Amino acid sequence: MKSKITGTTLPVLEIGLEAGDTIVAEPGEFSWMTESVQLKTTAMTAGAKGLFGVLGRALSGGGIFMTEYTAPSGNGLIAFAAKVPGQIMQVDVQPGHGYMIHRNGFLCATAGLELSIGFQQSLGAGIFGGNGFVLQRLAGTCSAWVELGGEIVTYDLQPGESIQVHPGHIGMFQESVGFDIRMMRGITNAIFGGDGLFLAHLTGPGKVWLQTLTLPNLAHALLPYLGRETVAQTTQAGVAGGVAGAMLRDMFGGR
């Protein structure tokens, strides 16, 4: 199996399949492929063991069903294009060396992937974190490809070293990194500061990949260019007020 990532702003991943190779992805994610590639859609793949494994994967942002791509009769090619401006990264997953990624980050992986929901280290992270804190866990033994938005900034946190991050900017981190959610310090900062009510705290040891582009920020930037009717509906939906607005931004992983 050979892979190649082409492009910069909107990259595409091309994977050359040989007999016996298998690529696992969510249904409908591929962009193009040769006729020699065959598809098999099933729920019992990507490490799912029983109904609870399938539901856990779905809650993390993955689908109930996954698609396996193979080329049984010989060589084949399949391509996955990025959905938003950003980068595609390849990571090698080994037992004890997994990754936590944002819920829309999984692109595809080789056979041996175990894709599941990433459980948080505190109850608060699960209750208040919203979509920005619902993470996918990559485990097993495989090569996986992850899509991150915008530019990528990497930090190699030392033991006990921490960084505070808005939830939507968390792209990926090694599962050795501690993860928690805390309320913004200072009631005035939380209510009137415009930075949201909650922040993620990542604590080393381990690597952290932060993404500069978040989907809520992208949607906000495109809002002036949408039709008047769409803008009016969006405005009416967002009149909840300062405190509620800040809480909603946190729940959807934005700023």
Q: Can you describe this structure?
A:
- By secondary structure, this protein is α+β, with helices and mostly antiparallel strands.
- It has one domain (2-251): Mitochondrial biogenesis AIM24 (Double-stranded beta-helix, 4-Layer Sandwich).
- Helix content is 20%, strand content 40%.
- The protein has six helices and 19 strands.
- It has helices at 50-59, 123-128, 187-192, 215-222, 228-237, 242-251, and strands at residues 2-6, 12-17, 22-25, 32-33, 38-42, 66-70, 76-81, 86-93, 99-102, 106-110, 113-118, 135-140, 142-149, 152-157, 162-165, 170-174, 178-183, 198-203, 206-211.
- The strands form four sheets. Strands 5-6-3-10-13-8 form a six-stranded antiparallel sheet, with no helix packed on it. A six-stranded antiparallel sheet has the order 11-12-9-16-19-14.
- Strand 1 and strand 2 form a beta hairpin.
- Mean pLDDT is 78; it is low at 122-132, 189-195 and 234-254.
Concise synopsis of the structure shown:
By secondary structure, the chain is an alpha+beta fold. It is built from 6 helices and 19 strands.
The total number of structural domains is 1
Spatial shape: globular
Q: How many helices?
A: 6
N to C succession of SSEs: EEEEEHEEEEEEHEEEEEEHEEHHH
The share of residues in extended strands comes to 35-45%
Task: Give a quick account of the main beta sheet: strands, pairing sense, barrel closure.
Answer: 6 strands, antiparallel
Mean pLDDT: 78
For the record, the CATH class is Alpha Beta
Query: What value does the Rg take, in angstroms?
Result: 19 Å
CATH architectural arrangement: 4-Layer Sandwich
CATH homology-level superfamily: Mitochondrial biogenesis AIM24
Terminal Cα span: 40 Å
Widest sheet, order of strands:
5-6-3-10-13-8
- What is the structural class? alpha+beta
